[in-house]
Every structure is written in C-alpha cells, then in structure tokens.
Amino acid sequence: MNLKQALTENNSIRLGLSADTWQEAVRLSIDPLIESGAVEEEYYHAILESTEEYGPYYILMPGMAMPHARPEAGVKRDSFSLVTLTEPVAFSDGKEVQVLLALAATSSEIHTSVAIPQIIALFELENSIERLSNCQSPEEVLAMIDESKNSPYLEGLDLES
C-alpha cells in the first residue's frame, strides 16, 4: 500500500476544512474513504466506539491523528485519506489535532509494516504539521510525501505494488 498512490487513487486529500468537534473531524477524514468505496459506513462508527472506550489512541503526535479501526469493521481495501482543518479540534483527553491521516488497512500486518513507516516518514519532516496545514493543493501534499521517500523508515519497503 503506497501512501501517495492511495491518496491519489481515492481522491482523498481534503484541505482547509472546518470541524467543531473531534467526531466531526473524524467524519471528515473517513468520508473520502466511504465515497471511494474503500470502507463502509460502519468503519466511522467503529472508530467512534473505540475512541469512546479507549480514548483517542490514534493521536500519534501533537497536532496529528490517524483515525482507524479494525479491518473487520468495514474495510474493503487498503487506503488512506488526509484532511487538514483550519482550526484544531480538541479530543476527549484535551489534545488538539489539525491534521488527520485516516487509515483503512485490510490486515494488522499492512497497518504495522507498510502503513506506519510511511506515516512516520512523512511526519518526521521538519515542521510537518504546520507545513501540511498550510498546503493549498493536493499536489503540495504529494510533494511532501515525495520529500519523505528517502526516510530510513522506508528502507526495504516495496511501495511500488
């Protein structure tokens, strides 16, 4: 699963959106995946339920969340979406998020060994949250992904398939 390819094929980069609640923000990040057929509606509800039960376990760093749920919760194919918000939203633990990179993975293996290294590579770029938040077009986001492709986290990954 290739991050850049998945974002392009699913037309799932949405920039400068507004949300009043974390639930709305998660919805905005999952909508492109529902629209593209990568996940079913139940995937959104599974994320809400697991967030209520376990807290926002998918906030990976200040300003960034990776909403996701289990593969059996309606995932049809591996996919990503990336959403930026004009203003951060606060989650139940008080942490604020402005960039959401939703993940739909058909297996835990893909989630851990393929998706996570690509996400780390992108977000280890200097000022990544600020830079992504300032992107005005999907092309700018894709250029940042290209910039991250030399990350040591991606060594040995076959991202062409």
- What is the CA-atom radius of gyration, in angstroms? 14 Å
Terminal-residue CA separation? 7 Å
Examine the coordinates and then state which fold CATH places here, giving the name of the CATH topology: Mannitol-specific EII, Chain A
Determine the CATH superfamily.
Answer: Mannitol-specific EII, Chain A
Kindly report the average pLDDT value. 94
How many individual helices?
Answer: 6
Tell me the fraction of residues in β-strands, as a range. 15-25%
Report low-confidence residues grouped into runs of 5 or more. none
Q: What's the CATH class label?
A: Alpha Beta
Structural classification: alpha/beta
| Largest sheet data | 5 strands, mixed
Helix content: 40-55%
N-to-C order of helices and strands: HEHHEEEEHHH
Give the CA-based shape.
Answer: globular
- Any idea what the CATH architecture is? 3-Layer(aba) Sandwich
Instruction: Domain count, please report it.
Output: 1
What attributes does this structure have?
single chain; 161 residues; alpha/beta; Mannitol-specific EII, Chain A; 5-stranded mixed β-sheet; 6 helices; 20% strand
Explain this structure.
The longest helix has 16 residues, at 108-123. The chain has a single domain, classed as Mannitol-specific EII, Chain A, CATH 3.40.930. It contains six helices and five strands. The protein starts with a helix and ends in a 14-residue tail after the last helix. The chain has 161 residues and is an alpha/beta fold. 42% of the residues lie in helices and 20% in strands. The chain has a five-stranded mixed β-sheet. Strand 4 and strand 5 (96-104) form a beta hairpin.
